[in-house]
Amino acid sequence: MPTSIQRRTLLRGAGVLLPLPFLNLMEASAKATETVAPPKRFLTLFKPNGVHPPSWNISGGAEHDFRMSPLMKPFQKHRDDVLILDNMGDFGFSSHANSTRRFLSGHHANTKAASMDQLIADRIKGDTPHRSLELTTEGLFPNQIGCSYISYDKNGAPMPRESDPQLIFDRLFRNPLASPAHRQRMSSVLDRVLEDARSLSRTAGNEDRQTLDEYLNVVRESEKRLQNMQQAEPKIDVSSFTRPAHAANLDQQVESMLDMIELALWTDSTRCVTYMLGNSNSRMIFDFLGITEQHHYLSHFFRNFSRTNLESLLKISLWHMEKFDSLLTRLKSRKEGDGTLLDNTVVLYGSGMGHSDNHTVTRIPIILAGGKGLLKTGRYVRYSENQQLGRLHISLLEMFGIDVDTFANSAEPLPGLNGSDFKPYQERAFESWVKVEGNQITVQGRIRMSDNLDEAKVFFVDVQGQPPVRVEVAFRDFHNFNLAYHCGTGITLTGTGSTEGNRHVISKVTELKSIHGRKPGTQNG
Amino acid sequence: MLRRYIGRNAAPNEVRCMFLPNDISIALTISIVIGCPSVVLCADFHHDVKPLLGKYCIKCHSGDDANGDVDFSAIDKSDDVDAAFETWESVVGHLHAGTMPPENEPQPKDDERNKVFVWYEDFVGNIEARPAVFKARRLSVTEYRNTLRSVLGFDLQVAIIEAEQTVAERSMVIKLLPTDPPGRSGFKNDTHQNPLTTVVWDQYSFLIDAALEQLFSPERSTQLNGFTGASRDDEITIEHAERLLRTFLLRARRRTVSEADVEQIVARLQDRNGRKLVAALKFEMKTVLMSPVFIYRGLLTSGQHGARQTVDTFELAERLSYFLWADMPDDQLLSLAADGTLKIPTVYAAQIDRMLMSPKARNLADDFAAQWLTLNEIEHVSDNVPQMVALKSQPIDFMHYLFTEDRPLLELIDSETAFISPHTSRMYGADARQLTKYVKQKGIEVEIVPNQKIKLEHTTERGGILTMPGVLAMNKGPIQRGTWMLERILGQELPEPPADVGQVPPNNGVENLTFRQRFEQHRSNPSCAVCHDRIDPLGFALQDFDNSGQYLRSQNYRAPKRRKRGEESANANSKIDTSGQLPSGETFEDITGLRHILTTSQGEAVIRNIVEKTMSYALCRQLMIHDRPTVNVIVEQMKQDNGTWRDLFHAVANSVPFRETILSAAH
Fold first, then answer.
1. In terms of CB atoms within 10 Å, which end of chain A has fewer, N or C?
2. pLDDT tens-digit profile of B70-106?
3. CB neighbours of A45 closer than 8 A, spacing ≥ 6?
4. Contact B665 A206 (CB under 8 A)
């Protein structure tokens, strides 16, 4: 639908309008370090509130032969750089807070130990100025404090997070010691205040002189630090970077933060970043997408069902994917060594829960990207059984040279990430066909949602050797048949509609049967 | 006019640590100004008092491990005697009450006691009210935030998009600057011991860069044009810059600026325009905001060095505004200071009243009351922020009401007014019906709801600060509650308990004793009794309230789901013994009785504590010996006239240490 395309284009446009730093300034200095192998980085992007499974899950598909799901559409162009994992998570139901803890800690009961990102940070920090960055978009959600954190220190205490890109910029690049230009400016300030303080000191009483001495000592100490810094040769000149502007909406704020992440990694200011696109249970209102309801309310798409609510939820999930897309595009645009910054960064994108209405911790969205030589990307890996997240964490830790016997409740690494053997998901075979009797159409095949998320009432049933059968669901039938529940599985569906050549459209569903499956309302329903 | 300090009803063995003797380093300067009586008294001390200490006290109270940290052997010279001021007060209290020396030790005879009393009366009686020597002071974090806001005309805030029901520190200043530790006065605005460091310097630099960048950004054009007089999108000219500097310097220095100062800066900007002019102007502004004159308070105070004098009107305006607002003087105060009219009593009084009516006076409750009454401790009561905010905002709103609506001082202890929200209404029985109905919005589980003012008619046990749910919940158990009341309400200070006190034993299975009975057995040792005789009656009077602050005798009482070990069970409430006897001999049955005592016979002790805390906050320093006469006068005045908080603020703002100063000699 044209409006959707327009919106996405606009968002990218907004990103370009932001004061991005000059891209080519550092090429010379980057070249100088080419002889040394670039460092490995770890970056994770957390998506709050799970997903609407019918639009997230890949319908059918094999390791090298799969069709991106409707929500993954912004991702088509990164297909070769991502590794999509399926059947991740092995827990029936989890609260927002618990599922969020599981994202990087493996299990919600793992409360006395560091999350895996912090273990990696300790290992790879080298002599970077910042050991790690813990970033987020929102303030604390105090009703359940665990919803606000994914990173935990070695005692299992939450790491403070920062949401303001301007402050991150200051921390990274505006340190008075960060560049020769900064030092020059600070030096002038020091000269002047020293002069002022001295002239005050000439007329001050004894008491005030003590105060002024305290002040002058600090000024002199600052001068000394500047002099010491001047002896060391700066690696990269950051003085021309522009501080991000005050964000007018969430999209701008997140784009600015992605700028900061990109620069932080590229300038090797830090090698480990975690970024939450929102608190789990997020009450964010995505007004810039034209949505007026809170994200959490919308995420309970079944109990709060309406067409508008579902379409709003999908817009939000698509926006999350667009931010992931934007991040990967940035990392790819930065040349480093013989490859790109993305090649040297392992990116983990995902959520703490799968089904956002049922809070099930199965089929959690997890996508890995980048990490050339560590990950074998361009694949869709669906495991035969539900996998503990802790196994994924063990494998990622191993990638960074950290050997642990166990992590959370897991003792084995997860196979298959680097192309090694794994046991893939096998489903019982079924045939697919279409029969037409008068205006009655019966179709058997795998059902999926329309790729166009603005038409949440349209489904397709894939039939081998034929165009898919389009199913348009009338409002009542959403509840009578619950087509979304069956997405990704084989069904036999009967209804009335129209036929034109080998193209069939069912506009009124009269009967729906699952071939092998369960009924709605059972687990995973 | 001096009142003898120890009255008959002063609490025995009262230890006051609010008062410090003259700072030795400045004693020489001072003696020229006012003369010092201590030398004469010191001779009497050696003659009359010291031998008695040697005879009865020194056995326990000497050396490094002196009992109660009182070491009489170290007191010898005149300065030592002065320095031990609060110790003498305590000694006299113990002798009056007969609590020291302990029962099993030799007791002094009546004429020996009298010698000490006579010496002490002379000692106290010879103190004269005088101001302290002036010392510049770095702005506290709160003051820095407020002052920067007043200079710029906008609050420097963190740039994040807010979601509903989340909390984030919006102030960039509070976020970036290290938290102030409380000073010797117990208040954070006493920054004398909190020096500037390079870490703080770097953060100041970040903040000022961010602030100036914002001031010159399009979104702040209103504020910028307010400074420059430019209209909408005019490019800044040298005339604009000059105009800006006049207002800016006046605010940043908090006093009028000389023409020469402005011209000097303008000269440095000459021959620039456009971006270069703006960059140079920003640099000049940054040096002003990074200069000691902005960062510290009082460096420009004028007057005669080495002399006692009333403070200049700009300093007076600053003292008043940092006291009542924790902020710099506004334009009105600055102009009254500039033409000197602030000194006229009616003008000055009218300003105090105006300032108390201003929304900025909220700071007295947020800052002063919260620190005095340790209300920030309520933040640890619950992980559920809306619930926690509800509990914490009750006493804050209540104190704001007392401060700004001219309520009597002792309504602190007993009041018919309370501030409740749906989160706390359960504790207020039938009185909660006064709340207007609250309807949660769709999709919201818990949210912060503002308090409403109600009149207590049915749940009068909730009147006053002592029985507010949050205050009860932050102090768990009778000992914490008793200690808090003793220190925060009665202004007494307690030494640390010995390290080896151990646990209160559980019931042995033979006798079924209440926690109180078991506790009393446990602490029957006389060295415990010295403090616990004072703590326990106060704390046990609140045993009707459980650890979450619920009233056990209420019909709505809901037992907590999980009870921690050792907590009094609710169904034992028939057995709860809330009666007690104060060391002064007064007895009561329950909190209502105790509250009555605190507002009548012990009212003076409460008032004295209020006066001391308020003065200490207003002066941003620990009180000293020479403040004591001023405190005495104000206490007497408040007691006689059933004084209100407004009266108190006027009295403090007109007191000698507030209006006067001694400027130390120039080197």
1. N
2. 788 877 777 777 767 777 877 887 887 777 887 778 8
3. A275, A277, A323, A324, A327, A347, A348, A349, A350
4. yes
